């Protein structure tokens, strides 16, 4: 087990210890010391996470920095970029879960088609209200499926102030402690060869067309875009990594054929897929 994997396991265990201490103190009146001592595991957990993130850009064993890997786009049609590595890394604020160079993309078939953020009302929307929901997700290269997780529900959006606060302060923390599967929701990981793996997160429940061990061709439909896991609205979270396990992997930079890496807010047009293209 890599040091990175051990760090993520320790982070979650320390959070569970904290929850146990608080429960024992508040419910059963049991305490191992002064009240503030209960928060020691949380401080240690964040210290571990900080260490993991500081090491995020460096491998466990020294090797040359990787150049961006060119792959086909994972979608077709008109989309916009959010949390793009073109605007800075780590693109999502942390190196953990192999997401140093991750990107989020949202379907924008035409201006105004995607419901906008609302401060107060509606608090949430159905995933079907967003054009990304159900959009086909494509293999970015010829590859082997090494992870295929399905079965998590597509929840309501978190596109109001209260919804977003709930996601950031409550739901996101619970999912983080619960493990990478709860963060990514329904997801796929493909082995592209040469030490590169592609991860697709927040897929629609029941939409996966492949299983672990399947060989896929570039442009092949793998699943549909959904709103499962740690997601504010239907979108695709895409990243390349140097291993199949997001807990242990490090991010690998990518570039999409004919597109490059769109910046935050950029609208891009992905061409129709050509199955079998290398």
CATH architectural grouping of the largest domain? Distorted Sandwich
How many β strands by DSSP? Answer: 13
Instruction: Compute the CA-based radius of gyration.
Output: 20 Å
Give the oligomeric state: single chain
What is the average of the pLDDT values?
88
Give the DSSP E fraction (strand runs of 2 or more residues).
15-25%
What's the order of the H and E elements? HHEEEEEHHEEEEEEEE
What would the principal axes of the Cα set say about the shape? globular
What is the terminal separation in angstroms? 33 Å
Total number of distinct structural domains: 2
Q: Can you walk me through this structure?
A:
With 278 residues, the chain is an alpha+beta fold. The chain folds into two domains: 3-54; 69-270, Glucose Permease (Domain IIA). Helices cover 23% and strands 22% of the residues. The strands form three sheets. Strands 2, 3, 5, 6, 7, 8, 10, 11 and 13 form a nine-stranded antiparallel sheet that branches. It has a two-stranded parallel sheet with strand order 1-12. Strands 4-9 form a two-stranded antiparallel sheet. A hairpin with a 2-residue loop joins strand 6 and strand 7 (196-203). Helix 1 runs antiparallel to helix 2 (40-54). The protein is globular. The protein starts with a helix and ends in an 8-residue tail after the last strand. The model is unreliable at 57-64 (pLDDT under 50).
């Amino acid at each position: 087990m890599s040091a990175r994997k051990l760090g993520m396991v320790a982070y979650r265990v320390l959070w569970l210890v904290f929850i146990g201490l608080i429960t024992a103190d508040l419910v059963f009146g049991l305490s191992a010391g002064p009240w503030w001592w209960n928060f020691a595991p949380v401080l240690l957990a964040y210290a571990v996470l900080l260490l993991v993130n500081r090491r995020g850009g460096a491998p466990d064993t020294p090797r040359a920095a990787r150049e961006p890997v060119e792959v086909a786009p994972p979608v077709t049609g008109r989309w916009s970029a959010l949390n793009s590595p073109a605007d800075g890394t780590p693109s999502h604020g942390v190196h953990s879960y192999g997401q140093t160079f991750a990107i989020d993309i949202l379907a924008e078939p035409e201006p105004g088609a995607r419901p906008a953020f609302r401060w107060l009302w509606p608090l949430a929307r159905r995933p079907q209200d967003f054009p990304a929901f159900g959009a086909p997700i494509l293999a970015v290269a010829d590859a082997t499926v090494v992870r295929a997780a399905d079965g998590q529900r597509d929840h309501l959006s978190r596109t109001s102030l209260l919804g977003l606060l709930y996601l950031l302060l409550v739901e996101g923390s619970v999912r983080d402690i619960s493990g990478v599967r709860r963060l990514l929701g329904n997801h796929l990981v493909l082995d592209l060869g040469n030490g590169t793996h592609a991860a697709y997160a927040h897929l629609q429940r029941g939409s996966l067309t492949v299983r672990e061990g399947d060989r896929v061709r570039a442009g092949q439909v793998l699943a549909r875009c959904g709103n499962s896991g740690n997601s504010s609205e239907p979108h695709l979270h895409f990243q390349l990594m140097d291993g199949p396990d997001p807990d242990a992997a490090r991010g690998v930079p990518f570039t999409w054929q004919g597109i490059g890496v769109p910046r935050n807010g950029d609208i891009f047009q992905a061409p129709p897929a050509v199955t079998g293209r290398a």
